[in-house]
Amino acid sequence: MKTIVANWKMNVGIRESIALARGTLLALRGRMHVPEVIVCPPFTALADVNKTVARSHVTLGAQDIYWEQAGAFTGEISARLLVETGATHVIIGHSERRRLFGETDEAIGKKTAAALAHGLIPIVCVGETAEQRGSGQTEEVVIRQLRAAFAMTTLREKDRVCIAYEPVWAIGSGKAATPEDAASVHLALRRVFHESVKSGADALSVLYGGSVDGKNAYGFLRETEINGLLVGSASVKLQQFTEILHAAGEAIEGAEAGRRTGEAKKS
Ligand code: PGA
User: Fold this and answer.
1) Could you tell me the residue range of the domain that residue 196 belongs to?
2) Is residue 231 in contact with ligand 1, taking CB distance under 6 Å?
3) Backbone angle region of 179, left / alpha / beta, with phi > 0 → left and psi within -120 to 50 → alpha
4) Res 258: pLDDT
5) d(CA 8, CA 64)
6) Total domain count for the chain?
7) Which of 57, 108, 185, 250 is the most exposed place for a label (fewest CB within 10 A)?
8) Of 15-29, 39-53, 112-126, 197-211, the least confident
9) What is the spatial distance between Cα 108 and Cα 124, in angstroms, rounded to a whole number?
């Protein structure tokens, strides 16, 4: 399976969110191979988008969460409140939150624990800056972020988790990582996750994010190490996003065909 997450950021209001959700449903209609799709509108549009995608296999994610359950935390939204809107997923630790709002590894750990405690699937973002990449620290940085995100959590059998590898320098810059570089970071993340957070293969999806568009999506999606994509700017452009969804369908079809050939050879 491939997973496509649309991070609409603060770019759309309620009406535009509904239109994008409808467009997403249309883009998937009648297709043989469809990815898992999670749309993440601003908080204000969650409930309306939930109605639009009800009874489809598009699901709903929020862009952030606060770790306390309830109380005097003006402006914050807890897991319980998110679940009420119909959200099943939540993006945690996006680099914009780390950079612009001072989110620490510790806060991200608390948010991840709160999401999981309420049955939300966390989409935990990790990624290195250009400077860190330049000095060869990519793996060290993302592994530290990964460990911190799950430091306060003991995953149960049924828990699912997404990790999004999003190099900071690639976000919104038009300069994506190469699929090969992304796949090698994914491999390291998967190894550390299984060694130090939870073993067992089904629990984890590793996504790539950062300047994904309709043209480069397939190159990422055909890598077996890359379970899907987290898409920002191209996710609010319906034409681009449709191309990405179709690229995911092709990648799923290609992987199935590859598996069938492999099985035929074995038997
Ligand atoms: P981008 O953003 O696709 O616009 O680079 C990705 C993200 O911020 O999740």
Assistant:
1) 3-266
2) yes
3) alpha
4) 85
5) 12
6) 1
7) 57
8) 197-211
9) 8
CATH at residue 166:
3.20.20.70
- Ligand 1 atom with minimal separation from the 125 CA: 9
Instruction: State the distance from the centre of ligand 1 to the C-alpha of 32, rounded, in angstroms.
Output: 27
Residue 199's pLDDT band, with cuts at 50, 70 and 90, is confident
Mean pLDDT value across the chain: 95
Residue 208 CA, ligand 1 centroid: distance in Å:
10
Catalytic residue set: 94, 166
Specify the ligand 1 atom closest to the Cα of 231.
Answer: 3
Ligand 1 pocket residue status of 176, Cβ below 6 Å: no
Atom of ligand 1 nearest to the CA of 210: 5
For ligand 1, whether the C-beta of 207 sits within 6 Å is no
HSE toward the beta carbon, residue 131, CA cutoff 13 A: 0
Whether 201 shows a pLDDT value over 70: the answer reads: no
